[in-house]
Write a structure and sequence with these properties.
The chain has 15 helices and 57 strands. The chain has 950 residues and is of the alpha+beta class.
């Protein structure tokens, strides 16, 4: 009876599997993922979005107590009001309407625009406002919302300006203005959420709330058609409805900021003649007791360096105490010489060996550099105000300390060392404390290979020294230097570093209040250090991580979303959350521990899932997060303690109709005796009595993603794992550890041994194994097929095949030279071309291509900004010359990793057809058998299957 029942059960399960269909290329667009999620401050509402790859998103709001749900089709960019009474969001146009606008090549103003949605969380009423480009709630205030509309729909018949309607405000000191020089603004609507009344302000270009929401500053452009339209900057008291004119007249005003108490406002602006190329920017300032804005800094302000001026693109910020205003200055630009005749002058880039940066890098960053601002400060209340430059061209970068209240800023420079970035990839820096009262500079750290940052309260500079592998503090008041990690046997740098460069740090966790302690990570645990060195270091996770192979990291469950980050520290005995990752099992979860203790942390949850984005409500003990694994699609959950959880979403219910798969960890020993591991993905309907083709896919180390959900998607050029698994392939993703100087042999050591280990199983078809890799993985594919004939098919994306020619090339997306990759980072040669030419040749597949017998497809795109696409050409032409089966795909204008979705979809089909032919015996497509002549480009894509052989 038992045997019969088993047979019946097996038969039923087999039927169920048989009924499930394999994934196809049509499923991608509607496959879902989790977007943003958040909780209202009072913890009563959860809000999250569900995105489609190419379709319409859905926004959901759930009342946690009543389970009442509100669904907003196409809702995006949602926010709760500070008082938890309202939620606002954009409503995107239908995807099909946006597509039609693209097809019809409509102008931006004629294309469909976002709407604004507002939900009353008490009544559940939803208000929708069409054609809204942005909206804002105040950071801390309540009862008010502002939004800026789009221009009127130009597709509709224009209507003459009408007289002012109810709710439209008369501006103080309205008067005729000159011709507008900037793009005209649109309507700003200020909604009183208590009374429900609206006020509309015309031709607004920019707006900004004070922190408490009681003040709203905005700029108006005026209108070419309406000479009476307001121009200037205005300040609205949102409680009393009183409007104050800060500046009257045309101009360009931006970068508004308020002080912490919402009593002072500052901004950048200029009122230069319209035809003046180089604008004269000023810093404007106003307090509630002053009627109009005053020019605080202009071109002849004392202290401003000669031929320097206010930078119109620089950020402006008050110190937290409101006494100082930080802003940017820069050298005055040279205007264009209008006497130059364009066709009579040479267009040439001059490369000079003394240049800090190579010409391609200079050209790539030219626009950014032209807007570069240099931090300066002014004492707002000084009776003798003057600009204090804190940085200059030789000391260009600085960060304020203690939210600007400190007497110094921390400045850094790599001046004089920038050329070395060509081969090192980075530069050492000197660090200075610069006095905000007089600009005096004090060098505190010299030639640091690492980084430095100020403590939250401004008492210390914490810095990591890569050369020594140490964490250190500099006490600002005394100048005392303390090596925090001295005497500890535990390492605070990457213990598994396998590139020919100094290892990186595991990072800073956080500080405790008042700078009493700094928390720093080792590989597994978190340590508490007294920054003055007076107390012994304390392992706040008590070594539990190292003892159990679990990596703990501080989890900030209330990430600050405001400009002023108030979550830079925790309290001395605060109970904090820790993310946890088991390095052996790859399980994820959370623990909790007291920052002031030295006890093993308390387990909250550990499971075969990947948890992400744990967020706590500001004023309630409720949490929202998402979790998933390879089998279960990501979903949103809420909990109070993780003992019970409530699932809010249900993404991708269609997955149950498809033959999905499983993911498992496999381990083996390499020929040299190294312990190795990888992920093996199997079809859901896996039958150990069958033989399966297998594809090995690799990039550095992938096993930490054992429980990562792999959505079927047209990828940038990685292997579409879930698609191939669903269609009857095994997919193997081995980790690789590298030996400096021999990255190619390292790939052989780990990948080939892992494949051979799996071939011992009867269900692996050892004659039908393919390999796929992109970029660094693509290089390894190219190398592996020169070593033996164990692979039936290979697909390589953006490979380097000739390290001798690639070594001196340019990464065009950044303008950087490629030498650093070989000497210091991923390519792992560890020497220059002339120091170890034999290693460059040993690791270059090009010199071994006569040995290749594996059919291979190369993707090499002509706009690749990381790997020169001529590397793909070298590989293709060499194999073609040798009579080997080879194809190359050049997606025109595409990057290193495919960006355009139509190209991503295209490559999925070609990759599937290629592997299906060589690993499954399917028919070959026309693009493989007869190719696509240039005369047929854009007319046919060669996907049709044929009876011909490639």
């Amino acid at each position: 009876m038992q045997k019969r029942l088993t047979v019946i059960l097996f038969f039923v399960v087999s039927i169920a599997y048989a009924q499930k269909k394999p994934l196809n290329h049509s499923v991608y667009d509607t496959w879902e993922s989790i977007g943003t999620k958040q909780l209202s401050n009072n913890g009563q509402w959860a809000m999250y979005s569900i995105l489609q790859q190419e379709g319409d998103a859905q926004l959901y709001l759930t009342n946690i107590k009543t389970n009442n749900k509100i669904n907003i089709p196409r809702g995006m960019n949602a926010q709760f009001s500070n008082d938890s009474k309202l939620a606002a969001f954009n409503i995107r146009p239908l995807n099909k309407d946006l597509r039609q606008a693209k097809i019809k090549k409509k102008k931006p103003d004629e294309s469909p625009k976002d709407s604004l949605g507002i939900v009353n969380l008490t009544s559940n009423a939803v208000i929708k406002v069409p054609r809204v480009k942005s909206f804002k709630f105040p950071e801390d205030g309540a009862g008010v919302l502002a939004y800026l509309t789009e221009k009127p729909d130009t597709a509709k018949k224009a209507i003459k300006p009408a007289e002012k309607k109810d709710g439209e405000t008369d501006f103080a000191d309205d008067e005729p203005a000159g011709k507008a020089k900037t793009e005209e603004g649109t309507d700003l609507v200020v909604k009183n959420l208590i009374t429900g009344t609206d006020k509309t302000y015309k031709f607004v270009t920019d707006y900004y709330f004070s922190k408490d929401g009681k003040q709203l500053v905005f700029a108006c452009s005026g209108s070419k058609k309406d000479k009476m339209a307001p121009q200037g900057v205005f300040l609205l008291n949102t409680e009393k409805g009183i409007l104050k004119t800060l500046i009257k007249g045309k101009g360009n005003f931006k970068n508004f900021t308020f002080d912490e108490e919402s009593e002072h406002v500052a901004f950048v602006g200029e009122q230069s003649p319209e035809k003046q190329e180089i604008k004269d920017y000023n810093i404007y300032y106003n307090s509630l007791t002053i009627d109009t804005a005053q020019i605080l800094v202009d071109f002849d302000m004392p202290g401003l360096p000669e031929k320097w001026s206010v930078n119109g693109d620089g950020k402006i910020t008050f110190s937290k105490d409101g006494k100082k205003l930080f802003f940017g200055i820069s050298p005055i630009k040279k205007p264009k010489d209008t006497t130059i005749v364009d066709f009579e002058v040479a267009k040439v880039d001059v490369w000079n060996y003394k240049d800090d940066y190579l010409q391609p890098m200079q050209l790539k960053n030219a626009e950014r550099d032209s807007k570069k601002s240099y931090l300066s400060v002014i004492d707002v209340y000084s009776s003798d105000p003057k600009v204090i430059p804190l940085t200059d061209t030789k000391l260009p970068d600085a960060n304020i300390i203690a939210e600007g209240d400190a007497a110094q800023v921390l400045a850094a420079t790599d001046y004089g060392r920038r050329i070395e970035s060509q081969w090192s990839g980075s530069t050492s820096k000197d660090y200075y404390l610069v006095d905000t009262k007089n600009g005096q500079k004090k060098k505190i750290i010299e030639n640091l290979n690492g980084y430095a940052l100020a403590s939250p309260a401004g008492n210390y500079i914490l810095y990591f020294d890569r050369k020594l592998g140490s964490w250190n503090t500099y006490q600002i008041a005394t100048g005392k230097v303390t090596v925090l990690t001295a005497g500890l046997t535990e390492k605070f740098v990457d213990e598994e570093n396998d590139v020919p460069d100094l290892p990186s740090a595991y990072g800073l966790a956080t500080w405790t209040e008042g700078d009493k302690a700094v928390l720093i990570n080792d590989k597994y645990d978190i340590w508490s250090f007294s920054p003055d060195g007076k107390s012994a270091p304390k392992n706040i996770t008590a070594g539990f991580g190292r003892a159990n192979n679990i990596t703990f990291r501080y989890e900030n469950v209330q990430p600050d979303r405001t400009e002023r980050n108030t979550n830079k520290f925790v309290k001395a005995n605060e109970l904090v959350w820790l993310s946890a990752f088991n390095n052996l099992t790859k399980e994820n979860g959370f623990y909790r521990t007291n920052v002031g203790s030295a006890k093993a942390p308390e387990l909250v949850v550990m499971a075969k899932f990947k948890y992400a984005n744990l967020i706590k409500a500001k004023d309630a003990d409720i949490y929202i997060y998402d979790k998933a694994n390879y089998v279960e699609s990501p979903n949103v959950y809420i909990t109070t303690d993780f003992k019970t959880e409530t699932k809010l979403s249900n993404t991708n219910p269609q997955q149950k109709d498809y033959n999905w798969g499983t993911a498992e960890l496999v381990k083996w020993t390499t020929p040299k005796g190294y312990k190795a591991e990888g992920i093996l993905y199997k079809p859901e309907n896996f039958d150990p009595n069958k033989k399966y083709p297998m594809i090995a896919y690799f990039y550095e180390k992938l096993t930490d993603g054992l429980y990562t959900y792999q959505a079927p998607a047209p990828t940038p050029s990685r292997l579409n794992i879930s698609y191939f698994v669903s269609n009857g392939y095994l997919v193997f993703a081995p980790d690789i550890k590298y030996e400096t100087g021999h990255p190619g042999k390292s790939a052989v050591e780990y990948i080939n041994s892992g494949v051979e280990n799996l071939k011992k199983n009867s269900w692996v078809d050892g004659n039908k194994i393919g390999i796929q890799g992109q970029s660094w993985g693509g290089y390894q594919v190219a190398y592996l097929i020169t070593q033996n004939n164990m692979y039936a098919a290979a697909w390589t994306g953006a490979p380097v095949v000739n390290m001798t020619s690639a070594y001196g090339g340019i990464r065009w997306e950044t303008g950087m030279n490629r030498q650093f990759q070989y000497e210091k980072t991923q390519s792992r040669i560890g020497a220059t071309l002339w120091e170890k030419p034999e290693l460059y040749i040993e690791n270059s597949p090009l010199f071994m291509l006569p040995k290749v017998n594996t059919p291979v497809v190369i993707m090499a795109n002509d706009a690749d900004g990381a790997v020169p696409w001529y590397q793909g050409i070298e590989m293709f032409t060499a194999l073609r010359r040798l009579g080997k089966p080879v194809w190359m795909l050049n997606y025109n204008g595409e990057a290193h990793n495919l960006v355009q979705r139509q190209n991503r979809k295209d490559i999925q089909i070609r990759e599937q057809q290629f592997f299906d032919y060589y690993l499954k015996g399917a028919k070959a497509p026309a693009w493989m058998t007869s190719g696509i002549p240039a005369t047929e480009k854009g007319k046919t894509w060669g996907f049709e299957l044929t009876d011909d052989k490639p």
